Amino acid sequence: QVQLVESGGGLVQAGGSLRLSCAASGSIFSMNVMSWYRQAPGNKRELVATISRGGSTNYANSVKGRFTISRDNAKNTMYLQMNSLKPEDTAVYYCNAVRSTFPVYDGWGQGTKVTVSS
């Protein structure tokens, strides 16, 4: 079973940048969709960005133009480059990977906390 581990979170001032990583213990080549979600205190988990196996990307309107999702299949790692950070980006960020073909997989990391100070 593939394990996902996020890293790269921390405290940053508004306007700053962070790069999150999601390292998989096995191959991500066959993962159809990989995503970043976030959950702020008292809020529901929300989708931030997705990247398909072919490299197509989608973003939440709130992060469009500021965040960039990417994946490196050779390194079994997905990234989220976050620029122009705002206090409202403060949340725990989770990575998710889905494989819809056999063996079906839907896994989550443990999360990495991002705090943006004003």
Give a description of the structure.
The protein is mostly beta strands and 118 residues long. Helix content is 0%, strand content 53%. It has no helices and eleven strands. Strands 2, 4, 5, 6, 9, 10 and 11 form a seven-stranded mixed β-sheet that branches. The protein starts with a strand and ends with a strand. The mean pLDDT is 96.
The count of DSSP E runs of length 2 or more, i.e. the number of strands, is 11
Radius of gyration: 14 Å
Q: How many helices in DSSP terms? A: 0
The portion of residues forming beta strands comes to over 45%
Helical coverage, percent range: under 10%
Q: What is the mean predicted local confidence, pLDDT?
A: 96
The first-to-last residue Cα distance is 40 Å
Tell me, what's the shape? globular
SSE string, helices as H and strands as E: EEEEEEEEEEE
What structural class do the secondary elements suggest? Answer: mainly beta
Biggest β-sheet, characterized? 7 strands, mixed
The low-confidence parts are none
In short:
The protein is mostly beta strands. It is built from no helices and eleven strands. The mean pLDDT is 96.
Key descriptive features of the protein:
118 residues, mainly beta, seven-stranded mixed sheet, four-stranded antiparallel sheet, 11 strands, 0% helix, 53% strand
Write the layout of secondary structure elements.
Layout: E1 4-7, E2 10-13, E3 18-24, E4 33-39, E5 46-52, E6 57-59, E7 67-72, E8 77-82, E9 91-99, E10 105-108, E11 112-117
Parallel strand pairs: 2-11
Antiparallel strand pairs: 1-3, 3-8, 4-5, 4-9, 5-6, 7-8, 9-10, 9-11
